[in-house]
User: What shape does this take?
Amino acid sequence: MKLKRFLSYMALGLMAVLPFTACDGDDDNWQAGSPVSKNSIGAYFASTNSSSIINTPEGFETNPTFTLTVCREVTTGAASVGIEVVKNPGNMTVPAKVDFADGEAEATITIDYSGIPLKQSCALSLKLEEAMTNPYKEQPGLASYAGSVLVSEWVKVGSQVPFKFRNTGLAPIYHDIYHLDGVNLFRIDNFLNSGVNFQFSISGSDKFDNNNISTWTGAIVPESNAAMYTDFWYLIDDEGNSATGHTGDNELWYIYFWLGADYGYIAFDFYNAGYNVLLFTPGWDTKESEEESGYEQLWDYIDAEWILPEE
Assistant: This one.
């Protein structure tokens, strides 16, 4: 949390020296937007809708559907709002409209994705009937929806991989590593004993081939529980605070991942399995008793070693 506070101060300091500009109203190209339709009910997709639908093959067989919630501001009278399909390469079945009963502020639609291919992420983009929305009013949602659907499962690709401290001799931490079959997404539960189930991809996803493990190499890209700051990001918990790991009686503070081109050690290399540097942390609590309040701030690297599972 100290890091988070420090970063906030840094951001404020930068704001203080940035010049301020104002709109002078002299833009000759300005044009008024389209007026809101008199029939508008202020419809929008709820912000609580999931943008990433992942189902197991077993769940797919029993229920290949998901629902989206649509809301409206004007609840007087029954109403129907048309739904336009913008992108749907998986040929999912989408209803042409959503219906509201009189006084109803929310309604749901059901999307059927029984025809999508397995182990392939299929995008879906929808847009509500423009005449029934209000783009000029702040709402807890949008008049459009963009998401993806994937039928797959997590497969263990590393068993009890030791994450070793290179210089200090702290006790290693052992993790299983999982891969979401079909896509460029990996997971490590309770990462560094921080309580964070950390998900990441490998950079260069355009070259990533699910069936060719030689392409599973590159810099890690956080897909969950990470906050960005300039040339690094750092691990955060589900509440948005800087996450703290543990090994033995030591706390791992400020788990950084640098982004600079010179930091080639921040990488996963499944193909050349063996000795692979993953990340580093710059400090941990070394106090030996409750009465001792000092902290020894040390930098160290964490290396991950594993053996690929048999084909």
Observations:
- The mean pLDDT is 77.
- Helices lie at 2-17, 57-62.
- The chain has two helices and 23 strands.
- The first helix runs from residue 2 to 17.
